[in-house]
Structures are given as structure tokens and as C-alpha cells.
Amino acid sequence: MAKLSDIASTIRSKNAGVNQITFDIIFPNKESYARVKESGVITRESIATFFDIPAARISDFVTFDLGNAIKFTIYRNRPSGSPGDWDILGCQQYGPLLEIEVP
Amino acid sequence: MTTAGSKKELRVLISTGHLGTAPSSPESFHRGMETNPDYVVADGGSSDPGPVYLGEDTTLGHFVREELELFLTASRRKGIPLVIGSAGDTGSNRGVDEFVSIIKELAQEHRISKFKIGYFYSEVPKDYLRKKIRAGKALTGLGGFPALTEDEIDKATRIVAVAGVDPFIKLLDMGADVIIAGRCGDINFTAGPCIHAGFPEALSYHMGKMIECASLVAEPFMGKETVIGTISKDDIKITPYHPDQRATIASVAGHSMYERETPYYEHTLGGMLDMRSCQYEQYDARTVRITGAQWVPATELRVKIEGAKKLGERYMGFVALRDPHVVRNVDKAIDWCKSAVAKRFGNEKYELYFHVFGRNGVLKELETVKETKAHELAIVVEGLAATDPLAEKITDFAVRMFFLARIPGVKGTAGTAATTKKTMKSSPGYMWNVNHTVPIDDPMELFPVHMTEAGV
Known about the structure:
The complex is a heterodimer of chains A (103) and B (456).
Chain A: E1 2-3, H1 4-7, E2 10-15, E3 20-26, H2 30-39, H3 44-51, E4 58-64, E5 69-75, E6 101-102
Chain B: E1 10-14, H1 26-33, E2 39-45, H2 52-56, H3 64-78, E3 82-89, H4 93-109, E4 115-120, H5 126-134, E5 140-141, H6 150-155, E6 156-161, H7 166-173, E7 178-180, H8 188-196, H9 201-211, E8 227-231, E9 236-240, H10 249-256, E10 265-268, E11 271-274, E12 279-284, E13 287-291, E14 294-297, E15 302-321, H11 324-328, H12 330-345, E16 350-357, E17 377-385, H13 388-403, E18 418-419, E19 424-425, E20 429-439, E21 449-454
Parallel strand pairs in B: 1-2, 2-3, 3-7, 4-7
Antiparallel strand pairs in B: 1-8, 4-21, 5-20, 6-15, 8-9, 9-13, 10-11, 11-14, 12-13, 15-17, 15-18, 15-19, 15-20, 16-17
Helix pairs in contact in B: 3-4, 7-8, 8-9, 12-13
């Protein structure tokens, strides 16, 4: 087992429009990308379970071979910068992903 | 002025992904300028800073004047056109006027010889949108928003439309040396000049997309450094000008998915850029060559509109907890505050939020760590109400109630929270309520262009 943070070269989150946050997990090479992609630890379903959100809150899930990347996007509960939101850019929401265990 | 087809390549310099938030690094900017690019461009805005700036019609950046001074003096010295997108963060009419005034003042200050400023506005009259709805046109929501209603249009303080390339092309045709744009798509202040010069639409839009955030397209991560995009009829090339940065296949491919739902498509007024068949190759040690994007013209012209509504005046108070028993029972303390406020202000309309840092202040319901290991917690109490005094009163009351929270078993009897002196006034609270597209007949119809002169 290894942590996702030991395998990926970039793990980030950012607004994609005012009502969605997109997460990018980018790997340094084809092998590490394939390892995580084929492990099944990062899928639309596993992400919904991980964040404990309904599957409908995930608006898109893409594996991007050209960029050695896995990318998914979630809807916010309220648009960015609404009262009650402390991450207007959505750029710290990726934090928990670093700890995901990959076989 | 560049005329269509007269050049084999067009080189566009950019040094910032958001003008005015922090200054561009002058070293890589000047290094890039020494190579005589054909255009200098910069993005003046974004919806990223949140709804307050459009709602209140204010500018976020504290370095706008310094940035414009650097860009204007360097570009005018060489006779290179300067293009600024989304003036004043939001592209409101005030933002455009303010940027035009700054350019004129700088031109006087630096005794720059006469030049033409082209500018366009982006604000949308509410009546225009009401008429669309009454004519049965769908104002379709983006990002999960429901269709726009007249009620939400009324509530928005200000609505801007997001321009395509057309007003840029029009202003270049009219001979603008400097363009100050209202709200526009991030890719269009670069794509406009490229298309104006006769380069293929697909490559023009793709270049706009790749360089919109300047050095974020290269590695290692650095902000506010210069990159130059070069377009030909066959390809685009991306080159960073900070000596320690390189554009690599990984950095460029990585940037193509940045802050977008998908790396494959980019929608803008007039069509869609399809990047599914893109090819990236390492052209030289620091340059990546990109080919293969397709431009798919839209069958129906739809323009994106943005707007925000005010929810109330806002205050914030700060509370800290150190008693381990109170830390463990923070939810009980919050419930105590909420019910105390409800009891005292139940007849008023207010909103109250508790940001518990040390537990889930950043992620809220998405936080995966359920049990905090923190020995102390910080809580920001965010309170909103219709008037300033009421917002202050309610927020401050909620803060004081932490101090007085009645939690069974607490040993301290002098106060259950550490508080600071004053509950602080914040910006009013706003919420994005317009994030839609509207059908239009002409890509220029919401973007009136104007021309003025500056310099001596």
C-alpha cells in the first residue's frame, strides 16, 4: 500500500465555474497513472463514498490518458463565495485525497 | 496594425493570470518584451473572487495601476498593441471606465505619444433579459443552476455578459492600440487578436486557453511570470521566460484541464473548442508545440451572463476554545449559541454560520476527518441581517453566547470561550444567482464598442 500523495505529482482542486469544484490528480508517468486507474480506488463511486456525498453531486469523472490524470468535478451546495463558504476558490478541498491508500 | 495573412507567426506575451492581485515579475516580463512580441495581453478579471465584487461593483486588486503602468509603458515604447480582458475584475462598466481613466492618466504622466484606446462594455440591461423570458426564450442555467426567472433578474444588483472574440476583432479593425474589455471569456482576449491576424480559429482559441494563466502552464509552479504563445497556421508553441521554468508535455496537458470540468471541451460565445485529438510535443528544451484542436461553430449563439444578489450586511466574530471538555463538546456550544440567538432574535430575518477551524472549517460537510485531534479550536461566527446594526448585534450576541455557553460538566466557571475585542464588519454577503446562457442574434449585440484617444 502507498498513499496517493506518494504516487501523484499534482493533487489539486479549483473552482470550475461558480457552482462546481474540480479535482485533478496528475501522475508523473503512464505506469503510476495506470496503477491508480486500474486499482479502482478512484472511481466515481469511491469518491462519492469517500466524501460521503450522493453520486448526483459528482457532475463529471474523467480519466485523461494524454495528461496521465484522473479528474472529477462536484457540485457545491451553494455557489462559491456565498455566506458560509470559506473556500471561495475551492483550492483547498483536495486535502483529504492525499491520504487515500492505493494498493 | 497587423493585417490578415501578412505574418507567418503571431507572438502573444502574457505575464499574469489575474491583473492587479499581485504584481507581475518584471524580470521575465522585460526578457519577453526584448523579443518584440506582437501583442501584450492580460486578464483583468474572473468570477473566482466571489460574488461580492460584481455585487458591490468594486475592484479586488491593489496593484492594478502598477500593472497597467508596466504593460502600457513597455508596449507603447515598442508600438505593440495591449489587450486587457475583464477590466476591474468583473468587467462592469465602472471597471472598464476606471481602467480607461488609468490608461489616460499614465499616458499623460509618462508623456506617451498619442494612441487610440478601444473599449467595450458588457453590462446587460435587465429589461433585455425580461423581454427574452417574456418572448419564451430559455435562459438556461449552467453548473446546476435552474432556468433564470424574472424574480432572480430583479434581485441581481448587476448583470454582465461574457464576450467572445468579436468586440476585440472589431476594435482592432477600428485601429485600437490599447483595448480595455468588459467581461469576456478568458480565452478570447488572446484568440481575438489571433483570429484578426488571419490564423485558424481552432488554434487561436486553443492558444488563448493555454496562455490565459501565464506561467501556470509551465513548471515548476510559479505565478506572475511571463510566457509567450506563438501561433502559426499549423500549430501553437508555448514558451516560458523565467529562466528556471519549462513548458513540458505534462505541464501543458495538466494546464488544459485546469479549472474546467473537462479537459476535452471549452465552450465560448460562438462555438466550442474540441481538444480530444490534441497532440503535444516537446519542441525544444522549454517549448511545447500543440496541434490538433478542432473548432465547432455553434448552431445557436448563446452568451453567458453573470450576476449576484445581496443577502444582507455581514459581520464576523472570532472565538477560540481551549478547555478540552468544551473542545469535545463544540457542537453543544454551537447549539447553545444558535438557540440563544433564535430565542432573542427569532422574529428577525438573519443568517448565522459557524466555521470551526481545527475540525471542518475549510471543507465543511466534505471533511473526511470526523474526530478532531486538535487541542484548541477557532470558530469564526459569520452573521448576516438586513441592516448593519442588526447584523452586528446578532453576530456579536452569538459570539458572547460562546463565552456563556452552558455545557454540563464544564470545570471553568469564568467563561467557556476566549474572545477577542470586537466583532468585525465584513463585506455585505452576496450570492451568485445569475450563471446562465441567453440566446442572442448577433455576437456584438451586448457589447457596444467605443474609441477614445490618450497621450500627448
